[in-house]
Specification:
Layout lengths: L4 H7 L4 H10 L11 E2 L17 E12 L16 H8 L4 E6 L7 E3 L1 H9 L4 E4 L2 E2 L2 H6 L4 E3 L1 E2 L8 E6 L3 E3 L2 E3 L4 E4 L4 E4 L4 H23 L12 H10 L5
Parallel strand pairs: 2-3, 3-5, 4-6, 5-7, 6-8
Antiparallel strand pairs: 1-7, 2-9, 2-12, 10-11, 12-13
Helix pairs in contact: 1-6, 2-6
Amino acid sequence: MNLNDKTRAMLGAVSTATLTTQLLKRGYRNIFMQGVRPLLPPPPSLGTAGGTAGNMVGVAVTLRYIPAREDLATMESLGSREHPQRKTIETIPAGAVLVMDCRGEAGVAAAGAILVARMQARGAAGLVADGGIRDAATAASLGLPIYCAGPAAPPNVARHLAADMNVPIGCGGVAVFPGDVVVGDGDGVVVIPAALADEVAAAATEQDRLEDFLLAEIRGGRSLFGVYPPDDATLQRYRSRREPND
């Protein structure tokens, strides 16, 4: 899937909380990853209900790890041009997010600082793994958005065997298909089915605008009742304060 610039920009400015609400309205309940969090705190928030001024947004490229087997998961295997982990990183398109299925193994690294640097050089939009990151301080300092289970020093071959690239995987308890749209903010990572990305981005943008207004109403002393959720009178106040061309 190609993510158009307008959709990418909208998804970069809304919260994952808003996105999960919009996906729930469409029947999707299990789209927010568990145990996957930012390795580095995100930039300051945009507004009161919106996302951050630098949400990770990109199309998913996937990598699947299986449990290591000693004759195959070796340090020497990492030098192969066909090694799935190395090959995925060497071919990741600009603007894509690498999502790695680590089976929730937090005690071993999915990748480290040198691989992160290579992804950054290729123009990747981010890295997501339900496992650890080694050389975490250096990796975080490079500036590429990283979402993971936390720092972990052991290399991937200690427990992982890289098995497949660009296949359906599970990460943080969520199904991820190649081409899905991945968004990360300070709360974590949400996965949007590719066919819904444009629709959800537009609806989430409008929801965040409304919720900024509702938050201002509550902070101004109004009761929850009639404001959250908004009744007709509240919606009328909201519409009257919108910019004429919005």
